[in-house]
Amino acid sequence: MRLEPYNLSYKKLWDTFLDESKNGHFFFKRDYLEYHSDRFEDISLLIFDDKDSLIALLPANIRDKTLISHQGLTFGGFITGNNMRTEVMLEIFKRLRYFCIQKDIKRIVYKCSPHIYHLMPSEEDLYALFINNFNLIRRDFTTTVNLLNKIKYQERRERSVKKAIKNGLIFEKTFDYSSYWELLEKILKKHHNVKPVHSLDEIINLSNMFPNNIKLYVAKKQGKLLAGTLIFENEQIVHTQYLANSDEGRGLGALDLVIDRLLNETYKHKKYFSFGTSHKKTGKLLNIGLINQKEGFGARSVTHDSYELII
Fold first, then answer.
1. Which of 122, 198, 232, 260 is 20 to 30 A distant from 242 in Cα terms?
2. Is the entire prediction scored with pTM above 0.85?
């Protein structure tokens, strides 16, 4: 078995393996990883077995002698194929430690992938973390609707959707990222004094590179943009990114209409609908208002953890 640092010559091999993996995500694609390559020093790895067959990928960056999987992504960890076995994963972790020692890397931070993103059971890495004495350092959670076994809406959410319909709001898919980013930036500035992680240019470029995965849905009244969300779409799961609701939209149930239509029409054929996180300060401060809205649509929490090993 050998670990090879990624270079451009491996791009096609990397992306092909990812497409056939049992726990991949489009944001592990090299084009997605490299849109912010100026912010992170890449140290992604390809793992080959003794027959020189590729058996796993590890998207990762290095900072302050720490290997992180991956600092620019919500979650990460080893990407594997259907033939991955627990014994092999234990050997991969053993080789990863040796690799870090050789590179004078002093620490590993491993961000686990939530099981809802797995096409089949893919938690060999969790056992390997335990065997190798990694310590849990952070617990995030994404609030998720099981679209195959939905929980009934809270009455408040039902009333809000009906109000939006009564007031003539229109739900639609749009490519007008510029108008939406203007609304989003205004709301984030007013309520949280922050900016979106992605710039407008970045999100337009990413949506052009991944048109089947990145989409924008909004609610309007007489042509006026009131609310919406960016969607990250995978084979069996969709994820809301950058939910936004104007003051007028709040009064008219605009965002609730968007969510309702996505859950019951656009993505009713999927398995999971993820609203993302509802907390701050590495998971220790819960945003009660935000999670109440998500849980009002029948969403419940799925954790994704981060582990650390001091080498």
1. 122
2. yes
SS (H, E, C) the chain: CEEEECCHHHHHHHHHHHHCCCCCCHHHCHHHHHHHCCCCEECCEEEECCCCCEEEEECCEEECCEEEECCCCCCCCCEECCCCCHHHHHHHHHHHHHHHHHCCCCEEEEECCCHHHCCCCCCHHHHHHHHCCCEEEEEEEEEEEECCCCCCCCHHHHHHHHHHHHCCCEEEEECCHHHHHHHHHHHHHHHHCCCCCCCHHHHHHHHHHCCCCEEEEEEEECCEEEEEEEEEECCCEEEEEEEEECHHHHHHCHHHHHHHHHHHHHCCCCCEEECCCCEECCCCEECHHHHHHHHHCCCEEEEEEEEEEEC
pLDDT, residue 282, reads 66
**Domains of the chain in sequence order:** 2-133 (3.40.630.30), 145-303 (3.40.630.30)
